[in-house]
Amino acid sequence: MVNLNQIVAVIDDDESVCRAIKRLLRSAGIAAETFSSGSEFLDTLSAIPSYRPACVILDIQMPGVNGLEVQRQLAPMGLPVIMITAYDELSARQTAIAAGAAAYLRKPLNGAILIKAVEMAIGNTPQP
Are 67 and 43 in contact (CB under 8 A)? Predict the structure, then answer.
């Protein structure tokens, strides 16, 4: 069972995707916080040292800092990352998985699969 005190960070430049994922997670009893860019999320992490989401759902293709770069910067923190993308490029998939992504999902997302991926990511103990 998911701890209700744990928050999932959702980072996607498409506001409607953020809203939909947040609603979906809430329906499963999982709290979520949304960010419209990789930079916004990284700025929040550096500005609030105590802020550590239980899991990060991260779009790969975003303007500015893309999802793979955010994932690279998160790696030392051991936060579970679920990559999402509308453009399934083999090289991006390989890079994300090699960097330790807990899951790699293609948009449009299957809600049940996303919830299961989040529950599995939160249930796993992050490796430093």
Answer: no
Domain ranges of the chain: 7-122
Specify the fold of 7-122: Rossmann fold (3.40.50)
Pseudo-torsion of CA 105, 1, 26, 77, nearest 10°? -60
Given a contact cutoff of 8 angstroms between Cβ atoms, the answer to whether 83 and 58 are in contact is yes
pLDDT in tens, 95-112: 999 999 999 999 999 999
How many angstroms from the chain centroid is the CA of residue 127?
16
Residue spans of the chain under pLDDT 50:
1-4, 124-128
Helix (H) or strand (E) holding 104, with range, is strand 103-106
Please state, in angstroms and as integers, the Cα–Cα distance from residue 111 to each residue in 21, 48, 118, 128, following that order. Answer: 8, 30, 11, 29
* Spatial separation of the C-alpha atoms in residues 38 and 63, rounded to whole Å: 9
Q: Distance between CA atoms of 111 and 118, rounded to whole angstroms?
A: 11
Within the chain, residue ranges assigned H as helices are 15-27, 38-47, 67-74, 90-98, 111-123
